[in-house]
Amino acid sequence: MNKISDYKKQKIIKRYLNGEKVEQIAKSTKVSKSAIYSWIRQYNEKRDNIASEIETLKKLVERQQMMIEILKTVGCLVGAPLKEKLSAMEKLYGKYNNHLLCETLEVDRGTFLNHIKRNKGEDNWYNQRREELKIQIQKLFEENNQIYGSKKITALLKKQYVNVSEEMVRELMNELGLKSIRTNSKKEYVKEKRKRNILKQQFNADAPNKVWVSDVTVFSYGDYYYYICAIIDLFSRKVVAYGISKHNSTQIVKSTMKRAITARKPSPGLIFHTDNGSNFCSRTFEKYLKENEIVHSFSRSGTPHDNAVAESFFSSLKREELYRRKINSEAELYRIIDKYINFYNSERLHSANHYKSPDEYEDEYNKK
After folding, report:
1. How many structural domains are present in the chain?
2. Are residues 74 and 177 in the same domain?
3. What is the overall mean pLDDT for the chain?
4. At which of 96, 118, 140 does a domain end?
5. Residue 293 domain-assigned?
6. Best exposed site among 7, 14, 244, 320 by fewest CB in 10 Å?
């Protein structure tokens, strides 16, 4: 049999790509089916190799462009002293991939990460940037029905001109306890079923210390974000304890609960209703509630009205006080919040209390 030319092979492959069956091609060209299948396989392998090479080149170009961007942004030369480079790189931490940042400026990655750890002060730019990013990430996660992971959240942030690396977004999402519902969805479904919504929007209690509700809100002042946790007794709408922190963590909700328990000394069986925030759902906090014989009730995911009383309190705090004041210092912010909560408990009238303040309503109950 004569050797088949490359041109004829290409014509046969083209016929196959246009949808013609191998059997028909073999019959009309008098070429064996095995030979045609072999050429098709070779063609596919060659095409895949070319596609892979193109993709590799694309990534290489993107990497080079990113390195050029870093060099334009960093504010120092590659040949600068190590101390100067570390100081300049510090300001870009979280905006670019750490490997790429270190490679561009020829700094050992371990040296850079140790420098970052040493400089994680309470009030520095590092914590400020992380808190700002957490708020943006949480907002995007909720707005997109909790279906996006770190890669897509990073893409959304970059669309909003927020320069951040995927590894930073992944780290912050882990801290916030944010996981795409697509990941382990069955496991999450089973876990969610175990969470009981005991209140079911029935915001009434026939005595103090039977049902408490709680939530955490955030307020921006100056360059920082302050997280405010409040625990409210449903019987009188009294704020039985509150806490303020620069970090939205388990610590703020646990310390606030400790203060509430010390002040009110509730009997076993108290119902404590919250949303599904990671701080309220942490193992540490759940263990603490069990130790104090407190029953945890949860809002349904994506249903803020399930915790309407706590939401309403924070709305009042902001609209009636925080948004109306010119705050001059952190200490003044703390004083304003404390003063408002005292006013809220002792003087502010509540329709749920037949237009009596929480303290007045509880006093009447105790006299009876």
Report:
1. 3
2. no
3. 85
4. 118
5. yes
6. 7
Q: For the chain, what's the residue count? A: 368
Both 72 and 139 in one domain: the answer is: no
| 1 is a domain residue | no
Helix or strand holding residue 89 (H, E):
helix 82-90
* End position of a domain, from candidates 71, 96, 118: 118
Asked whether residue 13 carries a pLDDT value surpassing 80, the answer given is yes
Check whether residue 58 and residue 176 sit in a common domain: no
The string of pLDDT tens digits covering residues 183-212 is 555 455 445 545 688 888 888 899 999 999
Distance in angstroms (rounded) separating the CA atoms of residues 213 and 54: 57
Instruction: Record the tokens describing residue 34, joined without a space.
Output: 């095995």
Provide the angle, in degrees to the nearest 10, between the axes of the packed helices 330-346 and 358-367: 40
Six token digits for residue 134: 């957490």
Structural domain that includes position 139 = 125-193
Three-state SS across 306-330? Answer: HHHHHHHHHHHHHHHCHHHCCCCCH
**209 found inside a domain:** yes
Name residue, tokens 């897509």. Answer: 152
pLDDT, residue 50, reads: 85
C-alpha to C-alpha distance for 73 and 91, rounded to whole angstroms: 10
C-alpha 94/C-alpha 154 separation (Å) is 11
Burial label for 150, CB within 10 Å (0-12, 13-18, 19+), is buried
What does the alpha-carbon distance between residue 141 and residue 136 come to, in Å, rounded to a whole number? 9
State both tokens at 327. 């705050």
> pLDDT, tens digit, for every residue of 17-35?
888 888 888 888 888 888 8
Maximum Cα interatomic distance, the chain, rounded to a whole number of Å = 111
267 and 329 belong to one structural domain = yes
| Residue 238 shares a structural domain with residue 272 | yes
Which residues touch 90 (CB under 8 Å, ≥6 apart)?
115, 116, 119, 126
For 217, the 3-state DSSP assignment is strand
Q: For residue 271, give the 3-state DSSP assignment.
A: strand
